Known about the structure:
By secondary structure, the chain is mainly alpha-helical. The chain has a domain at 60-265.
Amino acid sequence: MSEGKNMATTGATAPFRPRQGAGPADIVRRLLRMRETGLVLIILALFLVMSFASPYFLTWVNMRAMAMAFAVEGIVVVGMTILLISGGIDLSVGSVTALAMVIAGLLFLAGVDPWIASAISIAACASIGAGMGFFVTRVGLHHFIVSLAVMVIARGLCLLGTGGRPLGLYTLPPEFKFIGQGSIGVIPVVIVVFVVVVVAFDFMLRRTTMFRKVFYTGSNEKAAAYSGIRTKKVVFLTTTLCSALCGVAGIIYMARFGSAQPTFGIGMELNVIAAAVIGGASLSGGTGTIFGAILGAILLSVVSSSLALLDVSVYWQDIIRGSILLSAVTIDHYLNKRRG
Length: 340
């Protein structure tokens, strides 16, 4: 087990703790070496530049819109980050998120209570993740191929169930819409749910033995297995968790807009993977933090909002987002080579 612990120590991004006797200069140097610190500085720089470039950027309306936009996607980022740390990847997150709202929407229109319909939908998404986990751990297929197939199948089910048209759910009860449209004071409930999910999983990933096994598995699956860790079970559970969080995100989106969009989430997988990788998660597994991934999601949200406010063509926006993803993967590649 000691070998697995060594792997986790080198692969995971440990929370910052000042060493005893460390001076202010040492603390500053350690902070500057942290990837999260660099992301915070980049985000603050973008805020400063955009405050001069557009008078609408720092308005409450725009800040609220940005927060609401990345909150739903941020829940999916949490699941993707944990899966990436374990050594997997999921290209189906956008399609599964759309399928979650389609399943819940169809059940609601059939007369099922929306809360029960939502629970069934989230369970169905978790079952999809479990199915992917089965093909990866038992059949021996790669995450990339399995999730690519599920992406196409789930999107086809969305279009088949709705005929390609959005489902209008105008009679959803107010107490259900509250999770997507309500506020606690001035803070939207969507943001509250998002923060709870982030804090809970960030704590578990850093502090609990169960989630530390995710790092061991992603760092070196064979060595982790020799150390007594049931690595296939870890991969199976992280794959299931990622899809379940997609289900939660889909239900929140449905409650927010009062509809089920069968075409929702096209391209989401790129944004989610980019956010996780920008935040420090490695495509090779074994490295990453929830906090860093959320900073990556915030950065992408700020970039998207800035491009829209500056009236940049939507085609150029796609090119810029793709370039950011390519840059993040390139940096991750060189960092992995350096660690090796």
